[in-house]
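User: Show me a protein chain along with its predicted structure.
Assistant: Here is one chain, sequence first, then C-alpha cells.
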Amino acid sequence: MKIAFVIFEGMTALDFIGIYDPVTRLRTMDFKPDLEWEVCAYSAEVKDSTGLHFTPTRVGEPLHDYDMVIVPGGFGTRKLVEDAGFLQWLRSAEPCKFKLSVCTGSLLLGAAKFLAGKTATTHRNAFNDLRRFCPSVVDRKIVDADEIITAREVASSIDLGLYLCEKMAGREARERICRQMDYQCSL
C-alpha cells in the first residue's frame, strides 16, 4: 500500500501528524512492512497556521499512483477551495482507491468533486461550508463511505489514524499501536 499525505499552507499540524503517527507505525511495528508513504504538496513552501515549517518529499507531482490520499484541514482550506491549480492537482488522486480527510480537509475533497453523492463530516463550524459540496453532512467522529473516509475535528485525526490501522491490519494491530502510543482507544 502506498499513501500520499497531502500538506498545504495554512493546514493544522495535528490534522496531519495525528493520522501520520499511528498509520506509519504499521510499518515501523512490522504490521505492514510493505507500507510506503510520501508527504506531498502542491508548493515547495508549506507552513501550518502558526508558521511551523514542513518539508514535502514530493512537490506538484500527480497523486494518481497512490492507493490512499490523506488530506488534513485548517484555515488554509478556505482559500484552496477556490484555487483552480491546487484543485486540479488534488483531482489527480481520482484513481486512488481511498481518499481521506481530517477536519476541514473534507472541504478540499468536496471542492475536488470527490464527495458528490456521499455522506461526510467536518469541523462543526464548517458544516454549512461542506454542504456546498456534499449532500449529506453528519455530526459523527468518523464517516466511512467506502472509498471516502472523513473525520470530524482536529483531535479526531488520531482516532482516524487508529481506525485505519484496524482497517488495514486488524484489531490487534490497532490495540498494540494504541498501547505503544499510550493512547486510550475510543473506537
